[in-house]
Amino acid sequence: MPCLSHRSMMLSTISVRALNCYLEFAERTEQNYQQEMRIAHFVVKEPMVIGHECAGVIEEVGSGVTHLAAGDRVALEPGISCWRCRHCKGGRYNLCADMKFFATPPMHGSLANQIVHPADLCFKLPDGVSLEEGAMCEPLSVGVHACRRAGVGPETAVLIMGAGPIGLVSLLAARAFGAPRVAIVDVDEHRLAVARSMGADAAVRISARPEDAAEEVARVQAALGGAEIDVSLDCAGFSKTLATALEATRPGGRVCLVGMGHNEMTVPLTSAAIREVDVVGIFRYKDTWPLCIEFLRSGKVDVKPLITHRFGFSQREVEEAFEVSARGRDAIKVMFNL
Questions:
Q1: Torsion of Cα atoms, 271 then 28 then 101 then 287, to 10°
Q2: What is the rounded CA–CA span in Å between residue 91 and residue 336?
Q3: Measured between alpha carbons, how far is 181 from 174 in angstroms, rounded to an integer?
Q4: What does the buried/exposed string (b/e) look like for 280-315 if buried means 16 or more CB atoms within 10 Å of the residue's CB?
Q5: pLDDT tens digits for 48-66?
Q6: Most exposed among 180, 251, 287, 297, judged by the fewest C-beta atoms under 10 Å?
Q7: What percent of the chain has pLDDT above 90?
Q8: How many other CB atoms are found less than 10 A from the CB of residue 142?
Q9: What's the rounded Cα separation, in Å, for the pair 26 and 259?
Q10: Which one-letter DSSP state was computed for residue 134?
Q11: Helix, strand or coil, per DSSP, at residue 212
């Protein structure tokens, strides 16, 4: 892929090879680009390389790079912001309007044998953290950013709507932030079984019917021993899931919208407003890689159970990997070893 791999190194960039790259068709990003050729206002207009979750080994560094060297193993943060706008200067670079993000049109992604990337967006992995785990810093960052925005901590009971990949990493992040009780809901019993194995205190199957929300909230609260829910993380992003999160969250609590299932939703905001339930959103993440790597190094977070399938990078294996990801079923994270 010549547009991502070249030999003329800028002063502050590095060349990374031997990438570990993941697919997450259970989430919307690659799935929408592959099937619908767009997500929100990002439209695929010409052939585009996908992939935004990756780690690899440094092959070459620019002359201005002093903190990394060839042979270092690194995890890559996939968004390059302008560092000049108000958001960047204010520390919220994830909101930069001029962001160049892997696999977001027209920017190519990281599913390649070699890429060139800014050195300050490449984070060295400790000896005890594998390249596979390093690549998982990207989805884990979503959960970490959501927990920060929602104020998750040692006194926070958390409800997670959706047990897909992002719901599961949000479960891991909430635990790492000290949440004493975490419940998770989904329509799929297999995903709930995975959530139980990863430490959810309660895993409740719900329906897609809005009229069932009140009864389902009661079941979740009962499963948590009657504890009030301080924070809800909606990792699905549908009208039903957000409405349930708003109803389940205690007065004065907070709901964080993480998933993007629907671009437009109809939800009962008035009842939430009179209970002063705060609603916040997230867009990607910021300043999360060092904390994610520390969570992995210390063992506070174990992402290995989320890696369910591994493939090489031959034509046959690539096609099979995409088929496995698209089918879903027991696939959570599908990895390419390049």
A1: 50
A2: 33
A3: 9
A4: eebebbbebbebbbebbeeeebebeebbebebeeee
A5: 888 899 999 999 999 889 9
A6: 251
A7: 70
A8: 23
A9: 11
A10: H
A11: helix
